[in-house]
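Deviations from the work plan: none for this task. Representative record:
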Amino acid sequence: MTDDHAIAPFSPSQVESINLYQRSGAFHPFTCANRGDSPHRTTTDKGVLVADETGLFCPDCDYEQTWVHGWMADGRWAKMLPDAALRGLEIPDHSAVGGPPKITEESQ
Ligand SMILES: [Zn+2]
């Protein structure tokens, strides 16, 4: 099995997929390696990392991580879930956004 990683910098859609994954509670999220050493908040787990374009970081210390599994970054994880697990989660549909605004020309 090939090791399928997504490496920072991440695209905005990768960031969105990773953060939804981290918040979903459906799978074990990536957590801070220092979460046992200093106070860390608990969301879906203790010390859950947060993604932005530059990578994943810990909100409670300076821990950083620059990769995730590929299936975490491209929405494949959401397809592994039974529909029931997705209740309350908004999975982005990128095909529906980003089009240019419609321009109506009135030439009379
Ligand atoms: Zn931390």
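Residues 5-96 form one domain.
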